[in-house]
Amino acid sequence: MTTKEFLAEQLAPNLDMLKMTIADFSEADMLVRPTPAANHAAWQLGHLAVAERQLVNIYQPGAVPEAPAAFAAKFTKETSKVNDPAAFPKKAELLDALTSARQATIAWVKGLSDADLAKPGPEKMKGFAPTIGHLIAMTPNHTMMHVGQFQVIRRVLGKPVIF
After folding, report:
1. SS3 160
2. 64-123, pLDDT tens digit by residue?
3. How far apart (Å, rounded) are the C-alpha atoms in residues 88 and 93?
4. Which domains does the chain carry?
5. What are phi and psi of 153, to 5 degrees?
6. Secondary structure (3-state) at 107
């Protein structure tokens, strides 16, 4: 197994774990905040979809189709404080957006050479993910950080512990 194959194989089950974590969330559950300053799941899912597109495209413009501007505008630092259900897409649309971004990311990774993994990213990303390989390795970590936050929401909602 090559490094790129390993990295690509980490991306799909990572998304599946996220989907399992929120599978039993209702539309109302998607807007629950475990504490007043925490982000709800609807905002976090949209953030993940937008962030994955933006980050991959910083390293390889056009690798992941950009989210429509109206979609991306719903997931800013400012909108993270919004509680109005009408301000966010439904759970299925959010999952579709994240799934399509992840599928495009996986396709991009599979098309890379091992030498591509060592290519440096832009200077502004040097401290965060200095190479393409670092970016790819970081992507599932970002998702899992949010899965941890979804686990806290599960507990607030009294849902069964699944992990």
Report:
1. coil
2. 998 888 999 999 999 999 999 999 999 999 999 999 999 999 999 999 998 999 999 999
3. 10
4. 3-156 (1.20.120.450)
5. -60, -40
6. helix
